[in-house]
Amino acid sequence: MNIFFDVDQTLLSLDGGLRPGVRDVFQRLTEEGHTLYVWSGNGIRWDFVDRYQLRDSVSGCFFKPLYNFWQALRRSNMPVLPDACVDDAPEVVEAFGGVVVSPYGMANPQDTEMERVYHLLSQRGTPK
């Protein structure tokens, strides 16, 4: 499954903290055969991927469409399309399917959203 993760307030807090569990969940999902991508309405975010040492799990970074989601993807000629996404914006998940997470505004070591994400995505099945 191609899984697209939003960055701001999904994986990264407004104060620059990585959401707890991101590395572990990324590793488990890739070990199970899923392909992970990062996208953001703020541009291509390899800087984020490298800063938090996620490159081993992330296959690509893309600009996330902010409206007319499927039309925007088709116009962009993206080389891969999402099977699921993880985002704090419900309208994005409604368009592509996946998991809505609570916005990660400020770093919180007690946050458990990534474990919930893992379990919900795992229920969709492992790629063959």
Order of helices and strands: EHEHEHEHEH
The CATH superfamily is HAD superfamily/HAD-like
CATH architecture annotation:
3-Layer(aba) Sandwich
**How much beta, percentage-wise?**
15-25%
User: What is the count of helical runs?
Assistant: 5
Quaternary structure type: single chain
Q: What can you see in these coordinates?
A:
The protein is α/β, with parallel strands linked by helices. It has one domain: Rossmann fold, CATH 3.40.50. 33% of the residues lie in helices and 19% in strands. It contains five helices and five strands; from the N terminus they run βαβαβαβαβα. A five-stranded parallel sheet has the order 3-2-1-4-5, sandwiched between helices. Strand 4, helix 4 and strand 5 form a beta-alpha-beta unit. The longest helix has 11 residues. The protein is globular, with a radius of gyration of 13 Å.
Question: Summarize this, please?
Answer:
The protein is built from 5 helices and 5 strands. It has helices at 22-31, 46-51, 69-76, 90-96, 113-123, and strands at residues 2-6, 35-40, 58-63, 84-87, 98-100.
Jot down its keywords.
alpha/beta, 5 strands, Rossmann fold, 128 residues, single chain, globular, five-stranded parallel beta sheet
Helices, strands, pairings?
Layout: E1 2-6, H1 22-31, E2 35-40, H2 46-51, E3 58-63, H3 69-76, E4 84-87, H4 90-96, E5 98-100, H5 113-123
Parallel strand pairs: 1-2, 1-4, 2-3, 4-5
